Amino acid sequence: MSSIQPGQGKRIFMQEVCPRDGLQNEAVFVETADKIALIDRLSLCGFAKVEVTSFTSPKAIPALRDAEAVMKGIQKVAGVEYSVLVPNMRGAERAIACNIDEANLVMSCSESHNNTNLRMGREASFNQLKQVIREIEGTSVAVNVSLSAAFGCPFEGNVPEKDVMSLVDRFAGLGVRGVTLCDTTGMAYPTQVLNLCRNVKKFFPALEVTLHFHDTRGLALANTVAALSEGIDRFDSSAGGLGGCPYAPGASGNVCSEDMVHMLSLMGFDTQVNLADLTGISRSLASLIGHEVHGSIVRAGRRDDLHAMPESLEQSFKGFIKDGVKA
Amino acid sequence: MSSIQPGQGKRIFMQEVCPRDGLQNEAVFVETADKIALIDRLSLCGFAKVEVTSFTSPKAIPALRDAEAVMKGIQKVAGVEYSVLVPNMRGAERAIACNIDEANLVMSCSESHNNTNLRMGREASFNQLKQVIREIEGTSVAVNVSLSAAFGCPFEGNVPEKDVMSLVDRFAGLGVRGVTLCDTTGMAYPTQVLNLCRNVKKFFPALEVTLHFHDTRGLALANTVAALSEGIDRFDSSAGGLGGCPYAPGASGNVCSEDMVHMLSLMGFDTQVNLADLTGISRSLASLIGHEVHGSIVRAGRRDDLHAMPESLEQSFKGFIKDGVKA
After folding, report:
1. Structure ipTM
2. Which residues are within 8 A (CB) of A112 and not within 5 positions of it... i.e. 6 or more apart?
3. B13-320 adopts what CATH topology?
């Protein structure tokens, strides 16, 4: 284990989180019709799952105040799951009424992060989510739990792995289909990712385990390689790298979908995501959100996008010709 | 083999290439005194090696036209090697006269890239470098050869691994101390890095092998993890991520030194580089080059730079409180 190997066509299940986790962080309100069009385009790209919206209070997150309209307006594509964020009982009721495929519940592995983000302690959050899980039981809706700050807390620093494992254990005991280990503020590093993934896979082999990386400190793809080496096959990512964290000023956001698909594809994994279509969508995001996205592929192109040799070396590369060299 | 493991204090030898590979790409001429001060500060950070300048024609690379003055002006620090780029015989003579520790020769693994970059074919380059190596033999100067486009060519695409191995073999036969596998335009990906590193280490166990990654497509740190898993312990990097490639518009530059040191340190490796000092230097580069640098640590801080909890949740996190959540 923990060996980096060529994908050899192994399927990787990608969840696109831009419509929820990305747009939630933007200053502008993206019109409902534009959200629906974006989700429909993403649906056709080949993602296994799309996180559509969040059934939170419209006052709390005005950017996603149109959750019902968005969920009802999208064209569902066969084979794609539609997930929504559900914070509490009220959200669960609203979400179930909208014919969702998955409810994504959330709480934090860190007490102070949970308090800051959800304004209650972890035990209160757990008990509330337990109720939500009971409410959803018996419906066709699957339950996933996103565990924030699983690799570190921006206020406390290290989060003991046993705290994360304990929450995974308790939610597994409630029968959830999957858990997502969220590196909410980009604190994960490769050897840490190895350990946590190894233990979660070992002790909860039946659980669907998703990794949710942020690229705050440039480590999202390195962490992905580490997770892959432990057999993780589910990842969240956000078109254009949208998203971020309100507690880490200047931080970049979620790992960029097209950058991740590009790497996975080069490594021989099968994401089933059409990279050209996805990159086109990410390029078009700027017109929706009013600023450029910061992904590498959008900026520099794919590895296979070759360049023409300069027609005139003298004219084109003044500084680099002759015995001037670029190593 | 190819297993990601905690560093457990293993020494990693970092070469800082910003003064040569970084500044060579900048539009402005950094004053000689400022270059010397920069190199002296970098020397004190703990790098194993610093690439100081390039003994190319001043007309070809005006940004480095002060090679002699810089090399003679710096304060050498015990334990730090000072390397310079040497393109040809003339450069070798000039460099040897300046009391350098290492001559870094360069040619490309791709015919078209070599033609574009060096205006001659690979065989002509090899023969020229062979002469340079003969010239240096018998002096105290060590020889390293940087092999450009070792992971792909921006004009041709894939570069056969056998072409790279063949060049490594021929230079090893000439008795060079080390080779650097350069991902000149950011085309390397983790499984490719694994293979090449494994083969070079296997067939040339006595050779010092350095990896030189560019972050063009966001893969530099993922590739570093792959190289580490094959036992590579020498890396080039550039403070602030300075550098780039003239053939890949919009591409970002060399892997950022402070981002790499940050990751290696979290993984338990010992780079001996003082991250706080290095980050301070990278922050100060903007005033030398006239634009911001794009490293993650400069922007977002280190993993251990914790944040204060908001005093008033209501005021500080309007959009994120209540049942608004951030996974």
Report:
1. 0.94
2. A153, A155, A156, B309
3. TIM Barrel (3.20.20)
